[in-house]
Structure of Oligopeptide/dipeptide ABC transporter, ATPase subunit:
Amino acid sequence: MTLTTTAAPGVRIRDLTVVYRTPHGELPAVRGVDLTLAPGTITGVVGESGSGKSTLALSLLNAVQPPGRIASGSVEIDGIGDVVRLGGERLRQTRGRRIGYVFQAAQNSLNPLKTIGKQLLDLGRSHGVEDLRGLVRDAKELLARMGMDGARVLDSYQHELSGGMRQRVGIMLALVLNAKVVVLDEPTTALDMITQAMILRIVREIHEERGLTTLIITHDVGAVAEIADDLAVMYGGRVVEHGPVEEVLGSPAHPYTQALIRAIPRLSGDLSLARPLPGRPPTLGTLPVTGCVFRERCDRRMPICETDDPAQVVAGGRTVACHAVVPPHAPAEPAMRKEYA
C-alpha cells in the first residue's frame, strides 16, 4: 500500500462559535470552544446528545450546513491553514484528501444506486487521482485489514452489507486518499459489542501505522477509554474539561464529568453507585445566555454560576471550566494554549 510519510499535523481550534438560525434568532450550538489536538494523538469528545459534539466535528471540515454557520473562531491545521477561511475548490480538495471524515450513519454517506467500487472511483476522480488501479488495490488491502473480502465489498451495493461492514467501508473511504487528519463521528453506534471492539482496534492500529491525528466523537465513555489519548467533555456547546484520558476518567474534576462517570452502568461491585444525571440536557432554546451552562443540574451550584461564565483554567493537569474547581477570586493558572509548529 502506498503511504505518505509526512508528519501528523496538529489541530488548533480557537474561540469557535457555531450558530443555528431559529424562529428565536441565531442560537449557539458551539460557543467559544478552545481545543488542541496534538500531532499523532487520538482525542475523544464525549457528552450527551445535543452537547455540540457533531457540530464541532463538522467544523473541522468547514461543513456546517444551513441553517447553521460558523459565526467566529478558527480551525488551524498544520499544512492546511485555517479551514474556516477555505472555500470553493480548495476546500473541496481538502475534504477527503487532507481530512477524512467517517459519518455517524455510514449508510447515509453511501450512494444506494452505485456499488462501493464505483463510489471509490468517483472519489478518486474527484480528487485527481491518476492511478485508479492503485487506489482500488489500496482499498482492497484496507478492507482486508478490517476482516472483509475487498473484491466482494467493492462489487456490492450498500444494502448488501451489514451495519458493521458499512461502517468499515466508511473508514476505508476516509483513509484511502491518505488523509492525515481523520474525524470519526460515533463510529460504533448501533453495532454489537464484538464489532465495536474490532472497529476500535482497527482505528487504533491504522492511526499508529499511518501517523494520523484523529478525533473521535462518541457518547460511549467506555469506548473512548480504550482508544483515546486525550479526552474532551462537552456540555451545552462548551468544552468543560479536557486532558489525558487516564486523568480525566481516573479523577474527574468537573461536576458534569463526574456525573457522566457515575451514570455508567455497572456489571459488578456496588450496583447502586451508578446514578443517572438529574434533569435534562439543554436545547438550543434553553441554553443560558450567561453563566455556567451546567448550573441547572449541578449539585455544586453557587451564586456566581448564574452570572459569570467559568473560564478555562489548569487544574490537576487538565483544563477545567468550573467555578467550584478553582475559586473565582483565587489566583488561577490560565489555561496555556500549546502551539505546534
